[in-house]
């Protein structure tokens, strides 16, 4: 379940943008449309898969708040991490996600369609931008990107697919892992998962 949802979450901004995509009206929506268009262009390029993954990762680094995603995914135990442990975990978690799901996401770019939806919710500096992903077999999912504004950029700190939250899915696993192996043991395990190949 986690692998499937995470792959879909990463595939969503890489999917083929349907010609009936909703017109963006809020700057956060405009940015998400630009993100989808840029990543789609990379995914459809003639570069090798390894080159595409590297280009997408480099582009995503500007828009994904890996620190906040990591903190939310760990939950309450995050306050017990030292600065060094936090840095190591963020790096390991980022590598794990990229290594485990990048191949699935690139496949999703060829097989799925996505459109930006006109609805949007805001609460102060936090915004939810919605898109609809249609898989090759016709199944549709609503993907919500949760963002907050930093200067002129909107940073993604969580993604939900049909209400299933990326950070919540991982929080249960990380809490169990920390209880079993401690913080350092959990980091080692996450690093090991990050080395797995698709």
UniProtKB/TrEMBL annotation:
InterPro entries (UniProt xref): MlaC/ttg2D, Tgt2/MlaC_sf
Keywords assigned by UniProt, alphabetized: Signal
Signal peptide limits: 1-23
Record-linked Pfam families: MlaC (PF05494)
Keyword Signal: yes
Name of the protein this chain belongs to: ABC transporter substrate-binding protein
Biological classification of the source: Bacteria, Pseudomonadati, Pseudomonadota, Betaproteobacteria, Neisseriales
